[in-house]
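Troubleshooting: if your tokenizer reports a length mismatch, compare your output against this known-good record of 215 residues.
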Amino acid sequence: MKLFITSTPHLVIAIGLAGHFASNAEASRSYVSKLPNGSKVPGASAIGHTDGTGEDGATNAFGDAFAEADYTWTKTLCMADSDGDGQTNGQELGDPCCQWVKTTNPVVLWSTGVSNPGDASKTSEPSLWANVPCGSTSAPSTSAPSTTSPPVTTTSPATTSPAIVTTAPPATTRPPTTTSPPATTVPPSTTSPPATTSPPTGLASRGVPASSAKR
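Known-good structure output:
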């Protein structure tokens, strides 16, 4: 039976490396709990590392951005596209509207279909957020809501101008038409008196009455 005895320096190095890898893996597990669906990404237990496990310690673009955000899921980190695949980190992790907050709102819109925001070859199905109205919903804030007083609108009373009534002068009455006087009736013609019969010639001159002459 052969026994292989490892020298002390080599044993120390091996133990140190094992501890280092274990420490990295443990740290990675603690970090994913600070991300929406961080532990539910298929094929990657440590989404911030290039190997997906965190054993080698190398980080990808998402891991670097996460570190710059002080290992906190911020709106800026959520809206960024760390791996440049055309989808935001929030869309890939089920938080398209960037509303997830670990302590106050640990709610995601979906868990099935998430993808690795640090791997450009992995993307999510756009239909997952196609009908999500993020524009009408703002991300939650940890600061106290500000109270905005409604603007006071002062309306001046409307001034009514007096109505100007113009009275037309009464129509001028035309004087009545002057009636012409009746035509003057021409008086009847004066009847001439009957002509006087002259006595027969000779008798009167001799003084004989006309009656005697007839006898």
